[in-house]
Amino acid sequence: MSFNDPIDRRGTQSSKWDMMEELYDVPAEDGLAMWTADSDYPTAPCVIDALRKAADHGVFGYMPIYDEYLQAVQWWMKTRHNWEIDTSWILTSQGLGNAIALCLDVWTDPGARVVTFNPVYHEFRVKAEKAGRSVVACPLKREGSQYVLDLEDAQSRLDGSEQMLIWCSPQNPSGRVWTADELRAVADFAVRNDLILVSDEIHHDLVFPGATFVPMHIAAPEITDRLVLLTAASKTFNIAGQRTGNMIIPDPKLRSDMQKRLNALDYKPAGLSLRMITAAYSPEGADWADAQIAHLDENRKLFDAAIADIPGAASMPLQATYLAWVDFSGTGMRFEEISHRVRKVARIAPSSGPDFGPGGETCLRFNLATQRARVEEACTRLKDAFSDLQ
Fold first, then answer.
1. Nearest Cα residue to 288 out of 80, 82, 124
2. Which candidate, 126, 106, 96, places its Cα nearest to that of 244?
3. pLDDT tens digits for 107-128?
4. Could you count the other beta carbons within 10 Å of the beta carbon of residue 6?
5. Measured at the alpha carbon of residue 183, what is the angle toward residues 177 and 186, in degrees to the nearest 5?
6. How do residues 88-100 score in pLDDT, each as one tens digit?
7. Are 339 and 382 a contacting pair, CB within 8 Å?
8. In which region does residue 363 sit, left (phi positive, over 0), alpha (psi from -120 to 50) or beta (all else)?
């Protein structure tokens, strides 16, 4: 099956499609779900084959975190990101949302302040607030067609009680790939303010030609004693429902702290998810991931051209992720009007920009990890919904 073969996810317990009407008031029968970050095409054949093999075996008993899994993660980081890791650094979590919650639990106190750079993935704030922590939202600065750091402004917002920085690389929602110099500046900021640095790098495989992703550990190895890196196969291989991610923790003390908490919670990963990720992190999986990037690259070009045809709308050039960040501020419309046109007129359900914090007030985030025909349909609907501006 190719990335463009039609597949209907309605009625399959897909939160993206089956909750669209409830959450966004976009009709289920003909709406386009372009919000939550999963894909609309099947995962890699090698992953499906691993599941079939397990099903044919028919026994689903207890499983350890076996060596082949750890070695597959190690191989993937080396071959895809030139990052040498030790298998002992790898701890698993029930997805990266759970990993963030665990990091907050282990390394911050109730009521502590947590730093983010916004606009950013809204679950950073949600997880912090659920844990009884508060968020210091430090705005990124718009420079031309991309976001850049404003660490002087960020420093002015801190009062010394902050304990953690949750960082997003590549950046969600903008798709920005940070340079090594920028990553070192963030690392230095964490050191100056005595912050544990949690680097969410879940989109690190979805990088387009012309950009190079650098893991935080490579950019700033000197901060190993305060660094936790979060990775997962879930976005790359569309297996988020398997709820398995990795916390890669090079520092022995930090790793021991987290392992003790996992032991206290009696946490163990699901066996089938380990088999799927082991199969994904392979040469066959790498070939499939490359083909997916080529597909997404064409989708983003098509979508960006359509947005450019809407006066006052601008799609931030994607360097990574499959999430297009569109700013409608040039239309002069309030967010309520923008949202109405997109959701009620175009019948598209994107993610709401204001949820991502400062900088998202007039923006929407569109998921492009779908069949080309759906992207083409979305482009037509959006241009029609704003046709009076032509």
1. 80
2. 96
3. 999 999 999 999 999 999 999 9
4. 10
5. 125
6. 999 999 999 999 9
7. no
8. beta
* Alpha carbons 170 and 125: distance in angstroms, whole number: 18
Among residues 74, 86, 102, the alpha carbon closest in space to that of 267 is found at 102
| pLDDT value of residue 11 | 87
Q: DSSP assignment, residue 343?
A: I
* Segments making up each domain of the chain, as ranges: 15-44+285-385, 48-281
- Rounded Cα gap, residues 97 and 243, in angstroms: 9
Task: Determine the Cα–Cα distance for residues 295 and 369; give it in Å rounded to an integer.
Answer: 9
Q: Which of 185, 139, 138, 190 is nearest to 164 (CA)?
A: 190
Convert 36-61 to b/e letters by CB count within 10 Å (16 or more is b): bbbbbbebbebbeebeeebeeeeeee
Instruction: Report helix, strand or coil for 273.
Output: helix
Give the list of residues 6+ apart from residue 346 with CB closer than 8 angstroms, or none. 32, 378, 381, 382, 384, 385
**How would DSSP label each residue in 137-198?**
EEEPEEETTEEE--HHHHHHT--S-EEEEEEESS-TTT-PPPPHHHHHHHHHHHHHTT-EEE
The arrangement of secondary structure in 48-281, i.e. its CATH architecture, is: 3-Layer(aba) Sandwich (3.40)
We find that the CATH architecture of domain 15-44+285-385 is Alpha-Beta Complex (3.90)
The pLDDT-based confidence of 42 (bands split at 50, 70, 90) is very high
* Cα–Cα distance, 144 to 221 (Å, whole number): 31
pTM: 0.96
What is the spatial distance between Cα 353 and Cα 341, in angstroms, rounded to a whole number? 15
> Residue 21 belongs to what H/E stretch?
helix 20-24
Instruction: Identify which of 328, 333, 309, 334 has the alpha carbon closest to the alpha carbon of residue 366.
Output: 328
The radius of gyration of the chain from alpha carbons, rounded to an integer in Å, stands at: 21
Structure tokens at 110: 């109730």
Q: How is the beta sheet containing 363-367 ordered, strand by strand? A: 32-34, 348-352, 363-367, 323-327, 314-315
pLDDT category at 166 given cuts 50, 70, 90 is very high
What would the pLDDT profile of 347-379 be if each residue is shown by its tens digit? 999 999 999 999 999 999 999 999 999 999 999
- 151 and 115 in contact (C-beta within 8 Å)? no
